[in-house]
Amino acid sequence: xxxxxxxxxxxxxxxxxxxxxxxxxxxxxxxxxxxxxxxxxxxxxxxxxxxxxxxxxxxxxxxxxxxxxxxxxxxxxxxxxxxxxxxxxxxxxxxxxxxxxxxxxxxxxxxxxxxxxxxxxxxxxxxxxxxxxxxxxxxxxxxxxxxxxxxxxxxxxxxxxxxxxxxxxxxxxxxxxxxxxxxxxxxxxxxxxxxxxxxxxxxxxxxxxxxxxxxxxxxxxxxxxxxxxxxxxxxxxxxxxxxxxxxxxxxxxxxxxxxxxxxxxxxxxxxxxxxxxxxxxxxxxxxxxxxxx
Amino acid sequence: xxxxxxxxxxxxxxxxxxxxxxxxxxxxxxxxxxxxxxxxxxxxxxxxxxxxxxxxxxxxxxxxxxxxxxxxxxxxxxxxxxxxxxxxxxxxxxxxxxxxxxxxxxxxxxxxxxxxxxxxxxxxxxxxxxxxxxxxxxxxxxxxxxxxxxxxxxxxxxxxxxxxxxxxxxxxxxxxxxxxxxxxxxxxxxxxxxxxxxxxxxxxxxxxxxxxxxxxxxxxxxxxxxxxxxxxxxxxxxxxxxxxxxxxxxxxxxxxxxxxxxxxxxxxxxxxxxxxxxxxxxxxxxxxxxxxxxxxxxxxxxxxxxxxxxxxxxxxxxxxxxxxxxxxxxxxxxxxxxxxxxxxxxxxxxxxxxxxxxxxxxxxxxxxxxxxxxxxxxxx
Lengths: 293, 380
Prior knowledge:
The complex is a heterodimer of chains A (293) and B (380).
Chain A: H1 3-34, H2 41-56, H3 61-84, H4 92-114, E1 132-134, E2 137-139, H5 141-163, H6 165-175, H7 177-182, H8 187-213, H9 219-234, H10 239-259, H11 265-279
Antiparallel strand pairs in A: 1-2
Helix pairs in contact in A: 1-5, 1-6, 1-8, 1-9, 1-10, 2-3, 2-4, 2-8, 2-9, 3-8, 5-6, 5-8, 6-8, 9-10, 9-11, 10-11
Chain B: H1 3-25, E1 26-33, H2 40-59, E2 67-74, H3 79-92, E3 97-99, H4 104-117, E4 121-123, E5 138-140, H5 145-158, E6 163-169, H6 172-184, E7 191-198, H7 206-214, E8 219-223, H8 228-238, E9 245-247, H9 254-260, E10 268-271, H10 287-301, H11 307-326, H12 330-339, E11 343-344, E12 349-350, E13 366-371, E14 374-377
Parallel strand pairs in B: 1-2, 1-3, 3-4, 4-5, 6-7, 6-8, 8-9
Antiparallel strand pairs in B: 10-13, 11-12, 13-14
């Protein structure tokens, strides 16, 4: 493998990694508030892409994306209000089962609304075949957009959970639900908000990866599995951890392809996940309960 | 015998006779299709096509005076569901024949069942193994994988290509195609330098394409039916690869061309003539069937016709043809199916025989390419 190809594999890995990371980060918000994994997160990603494609028929791209994020946030909040808000005992197990049900519901609804065809947003910059040269390797400008959105999400979520009162209240919710309620926090509204924010992040991810991966009604599950993997790998609730884990996983997968038959790509990534979970159950960058304290 | 007794006897007799009379007046056709789930792009147009055709057949008086009753079961592309639906259709509904399933995996799961219960099965799936070895009750309407591969290799020879890289997805369709490519390459003077299998849910394939680029091949062949087939061509062009890209007959869905945009330009693939129905010369024997199916379907469902719906069209066409003479008898219909010659369908002209339960020749495929976002015949 000469240098140009080495860089090319690295770039491919970064492409994979940022797609995983941008999806994976969405898991963190609901987790940070409720302590559960939202299994419908992949469907929020799909929904964002689908709504943006539909809106783009009538609106310019930035407006379509903004619209898609808002619509999906609304859907996220509505789903929480309908299915979770009124639960008298919203235990973790119960909420996990509810989110699995929601994911199936959204997927089938999307099949009815948009059909089975793949849909696509135009490249934000350039087109399907344009690429930027980087030390002999070629990279699609859309990958740079994904990297930028990833960075933006890390900054915003970290700032939100660390430094804003609302963010701290949401973390308090997950850390000790009863304690937070005793302190007078509007727990149920905070959970609704966390679903809306999580859906919005998923939708933004769905828009920015759409030109690369396309959007199809059933794509949520596949994306969510990888996103979930990096969220766990990076330490749940830790946005920067998700990005680092995403890049690590993507680059490992890419170099696996260079050395082994490509069919082993997922085997290697799942082996890494298992290995990390055995040795460091809180993830590579997670500090266990401390992140939520 | 009192009047009351005879009246009640007559009533009893008619009660016993009526259902039988009804059963004889209709032809029950079962269909197992992946209407939802990962293969819904196959099953959905197939189900719509069958519903449209059955309504049309019944409006014209049915088959031999008998109305057709269509029972569609949605398998969601699951082989387990296909098996239980097949049992239900054969044993409870007592259908004359089953159309489908949509995918090769499901078809193989019920092949033995159809054979044992002596129920004609007309599969809409591609893999060659469905009809090779031949099972007397099992037929399929799409062209064979091997014919697609041979057409691609013939085209490569014309273009002076001998060293290729192969990509395929980890599905039944991808694997069947890869096997045929590897089996047929040597005898056509083609050398496979690199062959990679990727996950059907892959979201980006830059690393796989990089490996192909490093191998210095003269062309890429990709074999899949998922969105990945439209991703791979983008990734190849983004990496500056200008070599020809060949795709399987699974590329015959204009949605993928729209998705891949300019990257789809120049992709070469074999396909049935449905995609270029309007461009065909009037002398082409398939033109009439193709244009009428395409315009009926697009007018009724307001969506682009795809070759997959065409496979269901052909299955119903063949079954209706066989049932004209075979009536409601499974064994007779089977024998009629095997003897069908010169039936003009959407995939080609079917000439069935005891050794060929597909009945299509190499000429059923036309080599197509993409120009300005549309399918056009490849210039010879």
